[in-house]
Amino acid sequence: MRKIKNIADKIVAGIALIILSPIMLIACIGIKLSSKGTVLYKAKRMGKDLKPIIIYKFRTMRMDTEQEGAITAIDDDRIFPWGNILRKTKIDELPQLFNVLEGSMSIIGPRPEDISIVKKYYTDKEKTTLNVLPGLACPGSIFNYTHGDQYLKGKDIDKIYVKEFMHIKLALDLYYLEHWNLLYDVEIIIRTIYVILITSLSSRKIEFPMEYRRVFGKRDYKT
Is residue 145 part of a domain? Predict the structure, then answer.
C-alpha cells in the first residue's frame, strides 16, 4: 500500500504542477513586485526517520527582517501584503510539490516540523509521526488552517505554539497514522481543498475536524 501511495504521490504532484503552473507564475510575479529578494524560501525541517530535509515555499516575509523564532504568528508584521494572500490561500506551500517529486515529502502526511522543536519538545510517541514521509496536508494542518489563529498570536510565539497548540496537532496526526488508508488520503485532499476555498472566499466558520472530535471527544481542548 505504501508503494502505491508513493507512486500516486508523484503522479498527483506532476499533474498538480502542470495545472497549477499559472497560479504559481502569478505568485512569483506578485512576490517580485511586492518585496525585494528571492521568490523561493528554503526551510530546514525534520523529515522521515529524523533526517533533516529542505522544503520549498514561496517567500511571504520581508528579507530585511531577522528570524525571531521557528513559528510565525498569524499577525506577524514581517509578512508583506501579497505574502499574506499567499499564506491565506496556501499557495505559498505549492513549491513543495517539487519535494514530493524528489521523494522527500508526500501529498498527505504530518507536516514537516522545525528541527529544533522536534528535538526539544516531541515525545517518543509523537516522534512516530516521523516514521513516514512528511506531507503537504494532514488533519493537523487542516486544524491549524481553520483554528490556528485562536492560538498563534502574541509574543514568544514558539512557547505559545509548543504549550497551547503543537500537541493537539500531533494528536490528530497520530490518529491519521493509526487509521491510514488510501481512501483516507483522498478524503483529506478533498477536505483540504474545501476548507481553503471556504475560508478564502467567505467568512463562514469551519467546524473542528473529525479527528479532533474522535481524539478529544469534545469541541474545546484544555491543556
Answer: yes
pTM of structure: 0.90
pLDDT at 141: 94
Within its chain, how far is the Cα of 199 from the centroid? 16
221 belongs to a structural domain: no
What is the distance between the alpha carbons of residues 40 and 63, in angstroms, rounded to a whole number? 11
- Does residue 223 lie within any of the structural domains? no
Q: Which long-range CB contacts under 8 A does 70-78 form with residues at least 24 apart?
A: 70/114, 70/116, 70/117, 70/158, 70/161, 71/114, 71/117, 71/152, 71/157, 71/158, 71/160, 71/161, 72/157, 73/152, 73/153, 73/154, 73/157, 74/148, 74/149, 74/152, 74/153, 75/153, 76/157
Give dist(CA 175, CA 166) in Å, integer: 14
Query: In this structure, are residues 35 and 59 in contact, taking their beta carbons and an 8 Å threshold?
Result: yes
| Domain span holding position 102 | 2-216
Determine, yes or no, domain membership for 169: yes
Q: What is the pLDDT of residue 214?
A: 93
Domain count, the chain: 1
Instruction: Kindly tell me if the per-residue pLDDT of 134 is higher than 70.
Output: yes
Alpha helices in 53-103 (DSSP H): 81-89, 96-102
Is there a contact between 9 and 15 (Cβ–Cβ < 8 Å)? no
> Which residues 6+ apart lie within 8 Å of 119 measured at CB?
none
Strand 40-46 with 113-114, pairing: antiparallel
